[in-house]
Design brief:
Length: 364
């Protein structure tokens, strides 16, 4: 009897998801296939509101900048990947790349035409610019050539990506250093039971938790997006300007981080979570519920700093300080019913956030 090798590897997508994304002791979620890079487990509508809020507050379009940051990030992450890049110009044979997309929850793809230009349909994209950037990088790595790309998206379910060969020489991206304290995380399954509550997989589409679609967004993408976006910022046109202070961060980045944080704070606040605080240490569990489950980090130590709910908390690592502070500020406002003042600093060994009332309260 002859045994034939199966054309495609059989797998359970649910098991592949759980094997790839690993919890850590510091509240980060780590990518097991990409050198334990941190990722943000984010609900799809929350993420779209986040991007929309950035545009509204800054008055600057994300589109091309986010797409190019995504392409550059994908190329870098592929260099440190735990699996080889796909080869050739037939995406139907890119089984590992397709599995990568599905476990990330970012969508799926199919080649339509490759005569004069390459035309690809991306179905169920988590975000148009991000998915076009990722696929463009996948295509360049598979074909060993550079390509220009553009896309059209008329509805949520799909977009058309068009690539044309380009003879431009672009150097490979390098690793970007973080501008805050970061302790190398250790894998820990202590709180893993809450990470995948009610995980459901929509075959060849995406996966969801508690009925809501989620996806994994790499930390490296957010950092590179900062570099593409920051030079175009001049002012904040919506939201709060003075709610956040960033110690030791340059002035241009402070503006962007304020936009990030205030957008996140507003989205979280309007989700109307119940945040009940009876004693100061309750904030540690709040951080586990609203930060760690999304891979954003967690509070290691917290203390009271006034009689009106003000706290100082420290943490060794986080996905991004602005996103961390935005969620925590939303939690504080839900718990105290007042506008928050948030101060972030980094003493070289740990990160510190102080949350207090925006307005002075009389103790009389």
């Amino acid at each position: 009897m002859r045994f034939f090798k199966r054309k495609f590897r059989e797998y359970s997508l649910e098991n592949e998801i759980k094997k790839r994304w690993l919890p850590s002791s510091c509240g980060l979620i780590l990518d097991n296939l990409r050198n334990l890079q941190p990722v943000w487990k984010v609900e799809s509508t929350f993420f779209e509101k986040f991007l929309s809020g950035i545009e509204n507050r800054s008055g600057v379009s994300l589109g091309r900048r986010l797409a190019h940051a995504s392409s550059e990030s994908e190329e870098f992450l592929s260099k440190i990947s735990g699996f080889p890049a796909s080869k050739g110009s037939n995406p139907a044979k890119w089984s590992d790349t397709k599995l990568d997309w599905l476990t990330r929850g970012i969508g799926n793809f199919e080649l339509l035409d490759k005569s004069d230009e390459i035309r690809v349909i991306i179905r169920y994209p988590i975000n148009g610019p991000i998915c076009t950037g990722i696929f463009s990088s996948n295509w360049e790595l598979a074909t060993k050539n550079r390509y220009r790309f553009r896309w059209t998206q008329n509805k949520y379910e799909s977009l058309i990506l068009i690539l044309s060969e380009d003879d431009v020489e672009i150097p490979q991206p390098n690793e970007i250093s973080l501008s805050w304290s970061h302790t190398i995380p250790k894998i820990s399954f202590e709180d893993d039971e809450y990470l995948w509550d009610s995980l459901e997989v929509e075959s060849e589409k995406y996966w969801s938790l508690m009925g809501s679609r989620y996806a994994m967004i790499n930390q490296d993408l957010i950092i590179r997006f900062e570099d593409y976006y920051q030079p175009y910022l001049n002012d904040i046109y919506e939201g709060r300007i003075d709610s956040f202070e960033w110690g030791g961060i340059d002035s241009d980045k402070r503006l962007l981080w304020t936009i990030f944080s205030d957008t996140i704070r507003e989205i979280f606040y309007h989700q109307a979570h119940h945040i009940l605080i009876s004693e100061t240490d309750d904030w540690i569990n709040v951080s586990k519920r609203h930060l760690s489950k999304q891979g954003l980090g967690k509070i290691n130590f917290v203390k009271s700093i006034d009689n009106f709910g003000g706290i100082e908390c420290s943490f060794n690592s986080c996905f991004h300080p602005a996103i961390f502070c935005g969620i925590l500020s939303g939690c504080w406002e839900r718990a105290n019913g007042r506008k928050v003042k948030c101060n972030f600093s980094d003493n070289g060994e740990t990160n510190i956030v102080r949350l207090m009332s925006m307005n002075e309260i009389s103790s009389n």
